[in-house]
Amino acid sequence: MTESECNAVGLNPEASSVTRRKLTVSYASRYPDYIRIPSIIMKGQWLAAAGFTTGTEVEVSVTEGRIVLTVKPPEPVDEQLVNALAQLNKLPAKKQKQVLALSSVAAG
């Protein structure tokens, strides 16, 4: 028997769970000249399941015939700033206004 040659490429585990969706490019009217511009609307629980929850920043990469949407990683949290804001919230409203006024003067 002769050995068979296999050209199969292994699937990326992240891509193997991809669910394909069909969308139609529609249009939206641009005011004030009412020119039709291409529009794609996506909505559904599948977006949240894929990591695209409400308020998530998304990076859009466009090439000929392809649009790729990628969730942007969250910005690192400044613990010192979080602690300062927590302390500010403990102050009475009048003191909070004074601190905010002082910080706006200091910021220029």
The H-and-E topology, N to C, reads as HEEHEEHH
Secondary-structure-based class equals alpha+beta
Tell me the major beta sheet. Answer: 2 strands, antiparallel
Please identify the oligomeric state: single chain
How many domains? 2
Percent of residues in helices comes to 25-40%
Strand order of the biggest β-sheet: 1-2
- Overall shape: it is elongated
Please give the radius of gyration in angstroms: 25 Å
Number of E-state strands: 4
Enumerate how many helices there are, as a single number.
4
Terminal-residue CA separation? 82 Å
What proportion of the residues form beta strands (DSSP E)? Answer: 15-25%
Poorly predicted residue ranges: 6-13
* Rounded mean pLDDT score: 83
Model description:
The chain is an alpha+beta fold and 108 residues long. The protein is built from 4 helices and 4 strands, in the order H-E-E-H-E-E-H-H. The strands form 2 sheets. A two-stranded antiparallel sheet has the order 1-2. It has a two-stranded antiparallel ribbon with strand order 3-4. It starts with 12 loop residues before the first helix and ends with a helix.
